[in-house]
């Protein structure tokens, strides 16, 4: 029997959002959130918080995005909690996008690529956020390793924080830094686009960036990959903002929300209901 090619991340993401709606639910165990759930801000509290999120989201949302920083804050035992959650979510068929924003010179980037996206990664996620500020091509090991293993990367392009524009709006000759990322991601997705599929190289464009996409003349629809839109909820971004920011690229948008959804815990059913309601509301408005 001829072996079937493994599905790409873009294909798996498209299928997941068609089944569960567009929401990417974040797991960000902020101290204030953990304590508001009646837990102690220590390893036990981190474990309980994460277990509740996994129970609420696994099999119920398209994508879960754990924020690595909150687990790294507890050292190797915190990272073990993160690895356990990644394994449980993926075993339930839920896509995991690890938000670790890795980026370094090529040879070190190769080590990051192996650590998070490679065949022998200890707890490989389905996709990883990466930082391109050492140059788009410095990401090559991550782009190639992800592609080889049916995984994805999300490249920071226009981040949701107000300071991001100092770097991202700057021009390199005729191009803004953000446009360099748009063109770089689009080039990675050429084959998928030709096949009429979603590519596996995505961008991060915050829901809070206002009119930046239009001012910089970015053609986000041409990226042909998923567009992670953090900033929905706690940072003030709304579904209406998504419409304004993304225009005709809306079908590829993956809106991300962490604190706004997590504030519905610690009850598993309450948390799941908030995630579902958020996803349903976004699906209606993005349609
Ligand atoms: O531009 C960016 C890139 C990543 N993030 C991350 O998303 C979540 C947002 O959490 P909320 O609680 O929904 O504000 C967090 O992990 C950020 O590191 C972002 O906000 N903006």
UniProtKB/TrEMBL annotation:
<keyword id="KW-0210">Decarboxylase</keyword>
<dbReference type="InterPro" id="IPR001754">
    <property type="entry name" value="OMPdeCOase_dom"/>
</dbReference>
<dbReference type="GO" id="GO:0006207">
    <property type="term" value="P:'de novo' pyrimidine nucleobase biosynthetic process"/>
</dbReference>
<keyword id="KW-0665">Pyrimidine biosynthesis</keyword>
<dbReference type="GO" id="GO:0044205">
    <property type="term" value="P:'de novo' UMP biosynthetic process"/>
</dbReference>
<dbReference type="InterPro" id="IPR011060">
    <property type="entry name" value="RibuloseP-bd_barrel"/>
</dbReference>
<feature type="domain" description="Orotidine 5'-phosphate decarboxylase">
    <location>
        <begin position="22"/>
        <end position="274"/>
    </location>
</feature>
<comment type="similarity">
    <text>Belongs to the OMP decarboxylase family. Type 2 subfamily.</text>
</comment>
<dbReference type="GO" id="GO:0004590">
    <property type="term" value="F:orotidine-5'-phosphate decarboxylase activity"/>
</dbReference>
<dbReference type="InterPro" id="IPR013785">
    <property type="entry name" value="Aldolase_TIM"/>
</dbReference>
<comment type="pathway">
    <text>Pyrimidine metabolism; UMP biosynthesis via de novo pathway; UMP from orotate: step 2/2.</text>
</comment>
<keyword id="KW-0456">Lyase</keyword>
<dbReference type="Pfam" id="PF00215">
    <property type="entry name" value="OMPdecase"/>
</dbReference>
<dbReference type="InterPro" id="IPR018089">
    <property type="entry name" value="OMPdecase_AS"/>
</dbReference>
<feature type="active site" description="Proton donor">
    <location>
        <position position="101"/>
    </location>
</feature>
<protein>
    <recommendedName>
        <fullName>Orotidine 5'-phosphate decarboxylase</fullName>
        <ecNumber>4.1.1.23</ecNumber>
    </recommendedName>
</protein>
<dbReference type="InterPro" id="IPR011995">
    <property type="entry name" value="OMPdecase_type-2"/>
</dbReference>
